């Protein structure tokens, strides 16, 4: 009798921790993202990379084509430009 052989290989490397900050540089005290943005702190940069970098802004203005990455930015914009308050649920 033959026993089927498992051809499973151990995958090397495995998963990286939630956010990998590679190819970023610290230039003149600023953390530089490959997209061109730079931040004072590595935390802000990792936040940017997680929420913004390479993504479409998800908060859109109802009154003009403006888009924002953060709700607070859209709220500010809507108030400043349109004198309206963004309805939040
Ligand atoms: Zn970026
Ligand atoms: Zn607008």
From TrEMBL:
<dbReference type="InterPro" id="IPR036236">
    <property type="entry name" value="Znf_C2H2_sf"/>
</dbReference>
<keyword id="KW-0862">Zinc</keyword>
<dbReference type="InterPro" id="IPR013087">
    <property type="entry name" value="Znf_C2H2_type"/>
</dbReference>
<keyword id="KW-0479">Metal-binding</keyword>
<keyword id="KW-0863">Zinc-finger</keyword>
<protein>
    <submittedName>
        <fullName>Longitudinals lacking protein, isoforms A/B/D/L-like isoform X13</fullName>
    </submittedName>
</protein>
<dbReference type="GO" id="GO:0008270">
    <property type="term" value="F:zinc ion binding"/>
</dbReference>
<feature type="domain" description="C2H2-type">
    <location>
        <begin position="31"/>
        <end position="57"/>
    </location>
</feature>
